[in-house]
Amino acid sequence: MKLIVAKERSFPWFGMDIGGTLVKLVYFEPKDITAEEEQEEVENLKSIRKYLTSNTAYGKTGIRDVHLELKNLTVCGRKGNLHFIRFPSCAMHRFIQMGSEKNFSSLHTTLCATGGGAYKFEEDFRMCMCIEMTIAGCRVDLHGANQPVQINTQLAQLRGGHPKHGAKGSCPNSHPPGMALHIADLQLHKLDELDCLIQGLLYVDSVGFNGQPECYYFENPADPEQCQKKPYCLDNPYPMLLVNIGSGVSVLAVYSKDNYKRVTGTSLGGGTFLGLCCLLTGCETFEEALEMAAKGDSTNVDKLVKDIYGGDYERFGLQGSAVASSFGHMMSKEKRDTTSKEDLARATLVTITNNIGSIARMCALNENIDRVVFVGNFLRINMIAMKVLAYAMDYWSKGQLKALFLEHEGYFGAVGALLELLKMTDDQ
Amino acid sequence: MAARGGRGGGGSSGHCSQDKSITLPPDEIFRNLENAKCFAIDIGGSLTKLAYYSTVQHKVARVRSFDHSGKDIEHESPYEVTVQEEITARLHFIKFENTYIETCLDFIKDHLVNTETKVIKATGGGAYKFKDLIEKKLGLKVDKEDVMTCLIKGCNFVLTNIPHEVFAYQKDSDTEFRFQTNHPNIFPYLLVNIGSGVSIVKVEMEDKFEWIGGSSIGGGTFWGLGALLTKTKKFDELLQLASKGQHTNVDMLVKDVYGGAYQTLGLSGNLIASSFGKSATADKDFSKEDMAKSLLHMISNDIGQLACLYAKLHNLDKIYFGGFFIRGHPVTMRTITYSINFFSKGEVQALFLRHEGYLGAIGAFLKGAEQDNPNQYSWGENYAGSSGLMSTSPDLCPMQRTRSGTFDMFEMDRLERPLVNLPLLQDPSTYIPDTVDLTDDAMARKYWLTCFEEALDGVAKRAAASQPDSIDAVERAEKFQQKYWNKLQTLRQQPFAYGTLTVRSLLDTREHCLNEFNFPDPYSKIKQKENGIALKCFQGVIESLDSLDWKERQLALVKGLLAGNVFDWGAKAVSDVLESETQFGFEEAKSKLQERPWLEDSYNEWLDRLKEGPPHKCALIFADNSGIDIILGVFPFVRELLSSGTEVILACNSGPALNDVTYSESLIVTEKIAAMDSVIQSALKEERLLLVQTGSSSPCLDLSRLDKGLAVLVRERKTDLVIIEGMGRAIHTNYYAALKCESLKLAVIKNSWLAERLGGKIFSVIFKYEVPRE
Fold first, then answer.
1. Chain A stretch 140-179, residues whose beta carbon is closer than 8 A to a beta carbon of chain B
2. What residues of chain A lie within 8 A of the CB of B367, using their CB?
3. I need a labelling partner for B736 at 20 to 30 A (CA). Which of A279, A346, B695, B742 fits?
4. Could you please report the per-residue DSSP string of B498-540?
5. Are A82 and A231 in a shared domain?
6. Cβ neighbourhood burial of A268 (10 Å; 0-12, 13-18, 19+)
7. Is A30 an 8 Å CB contact of chain B?
8. What does each C-alpha distance from A54 to A28, B325, B341 come to in angstroms?
9. Which residues neighbour B611 within 8 Å (Cβ) at sequence distance 6 or greater?
10. Alpha carbon B550 to chain centroid, angstroms
């Protein structure tokens, strides 16, 4: 895939996807900086690059997924590495504050952001970074209609305080222009998350994963012993059903690069898994929840077909091992008292995953699509869920449907946002 | 009686511990056990449903012509009325909590006198668990039947046999329960059964169904997960918690992610983006209520979404929901309805069934009763013996609950003849018999309930007086009065208990209650006397009519018909007059009638039609009252039709209701008239005048449930005119009924409230002549 760039975009190159639970940030680190460039490079920019590339953790909760780094990438004629960073959405305010402290806004740059947070935190960006905004993301009703709005604000006034989200009383527009101490030059572009997701996915798949394929599937999903991860060639991806599992789930039918529709969605997603796990087990993080789930046994919690019928329910061709009622055993007090946290975590994981599989399968049938691509951060380090999905797709469709997965599962929206940045010309 | 076998802890087996506090009135619950057979039982997670088939001995009033052989005695009455015993078949269904199962089985064992039954059909998840107990207690062999097969069989049965079985649930409406007209073709449909898990079954034909999918996230998930999250053990309590909670404290909404709506996709800010999404990020405690609510939404939405996906894939638009998750719980019906509406964008309606809890038991019963061919008969819900929707819902009717413990009953009578649609209905799938929906119209409901309450004393007295030779008539009349009074009170609180509440259902319920206490025909003697009097006047009326010219005669005939209709013992205003003025007769009635123009008056159009058009091929007349109405009102009219070359089918009720003329009475009356009148006589002989029965015992008329013989005849004779007479048949019902042929609806409004509502006064006249639009 080639990017058509009218004019080279000045650094730094970021793409950001602000989701319900996680913020995903991709950063392109140029490796071909000439001595001349190095000299011209402002101090701020240099310090940002150093900060991001020399650390793998930022603050308490920010993490760079080093293993996902795409090396020696050529983007818009520049060579470099693409870094993948994530932090919880609840740290968004701190991120914004940090940005203002690092004087990010003085870089005369544009930040492309997608995900709900691009809308939700828009005000905060403006408040803290004195952003000059171009509302480009709202394709439908706003595109082209709005001229950039110059917003002037007193940075110094705001730097100290942590602005409350959505504090309506302090609308920057109300500041008289004459009071400006500092004119900011950072533009926030809000981008549609589904557009970004698809563009990002297609791009990453096209460049590959450092020589390895980006896309894979599981061979022999029915057999836990034989089940193996295998590369899959996604050169002809259409049509595909794209299931994005973040906090919630969106299901898209993609027919070409820019022809897709959102088929449905469900609120039972990664957020539900983690939320229920926290309530049921007292765990605090996704990693913790998954660790517990890995040790648990969901059949202590779920009622299986054989628990009700003594074996298979032949009338309906249901295997005895199929789950008849998720958490069904928990109707009994005795079982509630004897079940472990690990079992509960496992049952939660299996329940949510199977349900997503079910909905995806029905959508695939309704849309007449036989490839289902699962992405989103719910699948991060979540081999159990991936195998459950692979098995569910295969078993219930009698081998007709294939579940596909991608290495950069949760970052495609952010990559898509970065690509949008590079498509724009500086004078836009 | 005190709970039988209510032993202390020592003796009873562990899994069915007994609630000793309950005092069962089982003779009111397990009724007609003496001849019971074909037992079936459906044991669910918490409720047991027992079904049996029994025969009910009823007193019926029979009419018989006096023996004419030999002497020609001048009788005061035109015929004899005798009371006879008749045996009818009835289906009994009883629902009770599993804790009472042993008590109930004991009771049945003791009262099951005369049965050849060897086997009991059993279904439901608990059938296995209680197998030994049942076999030991009843001495019957337990024969297990597949749960889903029973469910579908039961579902088909209620969809076919019970009017207003199906309803949609509407949250923000006066009438939360919106009952549906029975569609002539019930297939195909989707049944979504939400038990501990969810089964989605596509039903294409009586015996053809397919499990097309399911989900493990169901009632068991709500209960199990809910119990873990809230430490609340009972399902009902969880639902109560949920109804008090705020899910937005626990769920991550679209606006929590976007700050507002997701506009490009048109997703509202209030939509749930991630169920329980907030409980992962926030470091705080959540209330039980909020978590329960969030869980309820999560599960309902998920089921609704899957149901819509399956409906779409299989191209189905009727989805019935059942299972314990739904059963009698407005909360879950509401959330499921919302979800279906959201995911189908309003294209699919979530539908529920009044007797959903009984489907398995009905199906198991049908399996066991195959040799009796229950499916070949038509069945009618017995309002007297059925508890009604939500009778055991603790929120809705604490009164009823204490009255009958937690027992819920449902009875169906086997109708002697199969019922079908009138072939002349313009659109059977949209036909609604009733004119006013009293569930909708609170003012009308209040009026009619009061009206029936006020009339009850008189009805009970009349019932007692109709059986002067019976020693317990007064006692039975009192019981009747109490029973019907209770029904009326139930309906005041739950107008939806038996489907759409209508004047017809109130009347029918009263008839069912009268029958229950062996008052099959309280008006038989009055009818007998009035028929006698009217017959004596017949010739005089005919002579005076014959003296008129054609035009005058037509008006006189119509006025006669209307005047005859004044004689209605069902109308309080009239019965008061009839009780006090013994001399009140045909002429007096005519003088009561409103002068033309009538309240609804298309008489001129009718006259023009008679004058200018060809005679009708065949007229179908639904008669109303005995006595003057049928003899001096209807028969002269019939005679005129016959004389002008129109064949006549005269349809009268199969069973008694108020002073309405019954089919058997009509046979005798016609015979008597034929003896006096050559026109009637030859028409009878040449089969140009045909007497048929409607299949109904109601003072109202449901054109979608008529005797099959009538329907066949209507088709054979190419009926092109339908005449419906009387307030019950032409105003309370069928006022708006659209027919494929010409029709005449006439009645005298004998109720000032109703007259006022229609813009007139008491004794206003409705004369509605309608021609279907081409």
1. 140-141, 166
2. none
3. B695
4. TBS--HHHHHHHHHHHHHHTT-S-TTHHHHHHHHHHHHHHHHH
5. no
6. buried
7. no
8. 14, 56, 53
9. none
10. 44
Mutation for B interface: A276, A284, A290, A356, most B CBs within 10 A: A276
Q: In chain B, what residues touch A300 (CB-CB under 8 Å)?
A: none
Instruction: Check if the beta carbon of residue B357 is closer than 8 Å to that of residue B398.
Output: no
Reading chain A (428 residues) residue by residue, the pLDDT tens digits are: 444 444 567 888 999 999 999 999 999 999 998 888 888 888 888 888 999 999 999 988 999 999 999 999 999 889 999 999 999 998 988 888 887 777 776 676 788 999 999 888 888 877 765 443 333 333 223 233 333 333 333 322 333 333 333 333 333 333 333 222 233 456 788 999 999 999 999 999 999 999 999 999 999 998 888 999 999 999 999 999 999 999 999 999 999 998 999 999 999 999 999 999 999 999 999 999 999 999 999 999 999 988 877 788 877 788 889 999 999 999 999 999 999 999 999 999 999 999 999 999 999 999 999 999 999 999 999 999 999 999 999 999 999 999 999 999 999 999 999 999 998 854 44
Residues B621, B622, B625, B631, Cα dihedral to 10°:
20
- Closest CB to B302 among A20, A275, A355: A355
**In terms of residues, how long is chain A?**
428
**Nearest C-alpha neighbor of A264 from the set A246, A242, A247:** A242
Q: Are B567 and B628 in contact (CB under 8 A)?
A: yes
Task: Chain B: give the shortest CA distance to residue A35, in Å.
Answer: 43
Report the CATH architecture of B166-250+286-353.
2-Layer Sandwich (3.30)
- Between helix A270-281 and helix A341-367 the angle, nearest 10°, is 160
Q: Which of B368, B336, B370 is nearest to B350 (CA)?
A: B336
Which residues, other chains included, contact B417 with Cβ-Cβ below 8 Å and sequence gap of 6+?
B378, B654, B693, B695, B707, B708, B709
The whole-angstrom separation of Cα A222 and Cα B536 is 90
Which pairs with CB-CB distance under 8 Å and at least 24 residues apart come from B747-750? B747/B562, B747/B565, B748/B562, B748/B563, B748/B565, B748/B566, B748/B593, B749/B599, B750/B566, B750/B568, B750/B571, B750/B573, B750/B574
Pairing of β B378-381 and β B419-420 = unpaired
Q: Is B220 close to A331, i.e. CB distance below 8 A?
A: yes
Q: What is each CA distance from A71 to A34, A80, A347, in whole angstroms?
A: 19, 7, 38
> Do both A271 and A307 map to the same domain?
no
Instruction: Give the chain B residue nearest A309 (alpha carbons).
Output: B125
CA distance B706 to B710: 7
The DSSP symbol for A69 reads P
Measured CA to CA, the distance from residue B218 to residue B296 in angstroms comes to: 10
Interchain proximity B216–A365, CB inside 8 Å:
no
Which helix (H) or strand (E) segment is B484 a member of? helix B473-493
- Check CB contact under 8 Å for A280 and B228: yes
* Best CA proximity match to A261, nearest among A363, A110, A144: A363
Residues 6 or more apart whose Cβ sits within 8 Å of residue B310: A362, B190, B200, B202, B212, B213, B316
ipTM of predicted assembly, 2 dp = 0.86
Report which of B729, B175, B738 is spatially closest to residue B500, judged by C-alpha positions.
Answer: B175
Domain boundaries, chain B: 33-66+75-161+360-414, 166-250+286-353, 430-511, 523-770
**Catalytic residue positions of A?**
193
Both structure tokens of A283: 């765990």
Q: Are B309 and A366 in contact (CB under 8 A)?
A: yes
A232 and A264 assigned to the same domain:
yes
Handedness of CA B520, B488, B379, B134 (dihedral sign): negative
The two tokens of residue B580 are: 């006090």
Q: How many domains does chain A have?
A: 3
